[in-house]
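Q: Joint fold for the lines below.
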Amino acid sequence: MEKKLLSVENVNVFYGDAQAIWDVSFHVNQGAIVALIGANGAGKSTALNMISGFNPPATGRILYEGKSLNNLPPEEIVNRGISHVPEGRRLFKRLTVLENLELGAFNSTDSRKRMKQSLEEVFRLFPKLEDRINQPAGTLSGGEQQILAIGRAMMSQPKLLMLDEPSLGLAPQIVELMFDIITQLREKGITILLVEQNVYQTLRISDYAYVLQTGHLKMEGRGEELLADPDFQKTFLGMVY
Amino acid sequence: MVTISSLDVFIQVIINGTLYGCIYGLAAIGLSLIFGSMQIIFIAQGAMMVLASYFTYWFFTLTSIDPLLCFILLLPVFYALGAIIYRVCFKRVARAGKNPTLLLAFGIMVLFERAMALLWSPDTRSVTTDYTTMSLSLGNINISYIRLLVFVIGIAATIIVFLFLKKTMWGKAVRGSSEDPHAAALLGISPVKVATLTFAIGISLAGVAGVAVAMSYPFDPYFGFIFSLKALVAVAIGGMGSVGGAFIGGVLLGLFESLGSYLISSGWADAISYAIFLIVLIFFPEGLFGRSAKKV
Amino acid sequence: MSKQPFLSGKKGVLGVILLIIFLSALPIVLEAEESYFIYFLYISFIYITVAQGWNLVAGYAGQVSLGQHAFFGIGAYVTAMSWDAGLTGYLDPVAMFSSGAIAALLAVIIGLPLLGKLRDDYFALGTLGFAEILRVVFIQGKDITGGPIGIMLPSGRYAGMTPYYYISLGIAVLTLVCIWFLIRSRFGLGFVAIREDEQAAEANGIPLLRSKILAFSIGAFFTGLCGSLTAYYSFHIHPGGVFTLTWGLLPLLMTILGGIGTFWGPVIGAVLLAGVFELANMWMPELHTLISGLFIVLVTMFMPNGVVSLVKGGDGPPFLYRIGPFRSLFGQSNTGRVSDGAYENGAENTIQR
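A: Joint structure:
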């Protein structure tokens, strides 16, 4: 029986007076790759910000490992094992690659004690980072920066990794690489919640996907199912027969 | 125009200026740290310094224990004071933007200044011990021991802060959070804790500077404001965001002032500082080491 | 922003006219020389003017100036020096206008390099530095400016409180009317556009430097006028009296207290603060300045949006408007927990500049 790692139930999220998410529910099973897809403004990033504690829902619940996340401060949520790689990566560009990674392990004394180990793991996964260890993060290429951002998020040994548009702004070959990496991460036992606009690639690697449109949950299903669905194909893949 | 009558006098002027500048530098480091991480111009830094000067004065007057001890004693006191001021006052205002924080800093300055004037009268005070007037003599040049000590302390403080920022986890967290507080929060770095820490360090540095002032010059409750402004000038010269630069900026400022007073006249000393400030801001916005003050 | 601007429309205009008539009648009704209230109003009108002048450049155009005392002081000195030299007379409109004009000119001169090149907080510091330089210049001015002692004017010419009252009332009304129409003009829209997003404003063809200098110099003009009137009132102008930080920071204080970026904010703030200062001065003169300092701290801590936001129910200062968590304190929205906003500085920085 698949265990639900994260469960979001009937949430409504606002930015000030403007509602961004309307009564949405979804869940992420342990060890799965789950995708939130949709166009710009659909509310995907809002959903992630909600989970990581920056924009708590006005109503509804967020359950993680059975316990509620509502109204916890972001620092605490990181401690529970949820890492959020935001849109645009948001690296510390003036700090070096190593320093960025080190700060990834800042959140708890445990993480810091295991820093050496975590660094080794990250470098094993992403050997290119080790080459650039003392360079300021801002000098890295787009793809390398994205890898660094993911590596940094990994340093806290998360159970749930949330990625917001990792393929954004990257060249096609790098995009492919990115999706390979995501699959690799799943093999290491990390659960992944992936937010993307790149629908085709995302659905190919996802176990399950939710489709958001202007803050509402429009469709959901297993990756291949959605890809095969003609309505879906028309709306999101532009395939008109 | 005064002609340079002898090399010795000139060198004395330079040395005096440099050493006086160390006090600006000490005040400036704290200011730079606070500004760099929180974008708050803590204009009350000078008032905090003067408070420390008063503590030193009363400590010595009431206990007759060597006031040098205050350099160490006041560090934790002012560290705590900084943390408290942040938590109580600035934390809630931080989200409202730069104007209210500037105003709040100003209000705190006024409050502290007036309180000190009421409590301890606006009369000038100074701390004199047997050694405050002693100095090292090299030929015709005198270097006051106290000022030499301040110089050493200033360098030490700069190095310590620098190492803290570069080598420790919290230091890196401060640097990261200054650049992108949201990203830092995503990693579990609480912006409130970072802010409290930088504020505490900043004010403790003001405390150290205050002890230095007490031992070097006469002071009064309103002395602090000019110091705050000079410290800002120092930060601008050194470059916004650079802690080492702030100290160097302070020393340079002291130097310029001293030279200016000597070559032109002492009444113009303040104006010279502000003129330097404007020139630096307009023509050299990066200062020596820092990030740009110009529009992006 | 669906509420009507306060006091607009026919009812509003009528109300304002009645208020002006009422205020004009006061010195006749009350014994102008003896009345403390008349003096209080006089001071308030001056405060209103300098506050609104600052609000124009800082609240509407978004350029925070910490050097308003430069313009106040210049205004005072031009008037004093010109009277002392026999060029103009007592309560001379030519002198007053010139004082304002010269202050405005100064604003243009200093504004060109500062506004052209500096980002917001550095501009603020630049204005502060400039004002301080000016102060030293006047202290060192020896025979030209009277040095630290300043200029003494013939106090025998004092013609009673009444003219001062009316002049200050006139200046305040003039300032408010000018600014009212200015912000509704295309210049005013330009200011707000610049404040909200400079790059977008520029991209839309708004001349950045010209607009900023316009706001800066208009504010300087009215501030200079006040300096001039104050010179006539005190009969003694010295650098320590006019180039003080008080005149530099009072406008800030009053405007932020009342509500920066709103029209009535500075007015409310000015009157309120004048009241606080005068009361504190009366009851506890020793503690007066201490209480003022405490007041500043408390207001900025608990009401950074200013009084106006309380009165208008959150429809307050536009650029503080989008700080969601604070508005929720007034029951405006349900964003849930008020987040520890310290790190919102980062986001806020990208929004504002």
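Q: Anything notable?
A: The first helix of chain B runs from residue 7 to 38. Strands of chain B lie at 135-138, 141-144.
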